[in-house]
Design brief:
145 residues, mainly alpha
Length: 145
């Protein structure tokens, strides 16, 4: 008698998956009356189960914040792509090639840790012959990322 009551309890026990999925059976459908149990279960639980969100996860806030920051960076790199040549390009208002040369002279003529600490930029490691292409490449890489 105890085994029949245990099997009925096991057939009616359900587990809730993480992330708020509807109720799912334990997987006890391997016995001989699996078709009848599944039919009873499907008619018994046909109602839609509301998905409840877990508190304290901030998943929506995280998604919105990261996408907003990514959009801000995309706009900033787009503006840099459009204005770098006019502002700091080879024929711009203040050419960055001249500025980097003056920093190099100031720190002793070498591109080392002092130059990187004074002016931290990736341009130290690039070829300075075509500075406009370097600036465009940096802006396009930032937009792609």
């Amino acid at each position: 008698m105890a085994s029949s009551s245990e099997s009925s309890e096991n057939s009616e026990s359900f587990l809730r998956k993480r992330r708020g999925d509807p109720l799912v059976s334990d997987g006890l459908s391997h016995d001989s009356c699996s078709a009848t149990v599944q039919d009873e279960d499907s008619t018994k639980y046909d109602k839609k189960v509301g998905v409840s969100l877990r508190t304290g996860t901030y998943w929506l806030t995280r998604i919105v914040l990261l996408r907003a920051i990514a959009f801000i960076y995309f706009v900033a790199f787009t503006v840099a792509y459009n204005q770098n040549k006019q502002l700091i390009g080879e024929k711009g208002l203040m050419p960055c090639k001249d500025y980097l040369r003056s920093v190099k002279r100031y720190v002793g003529g070498k591109i080392g840790m002092e130059a990187l600490a004074y002016t931290p930029t990736v341009l130290w490691f690039m070829d300075w012959n075509d500075m406009d292409a370097n600036l465009d490449g940096i802006a396009l890489a930032g937009m792609a990322l």
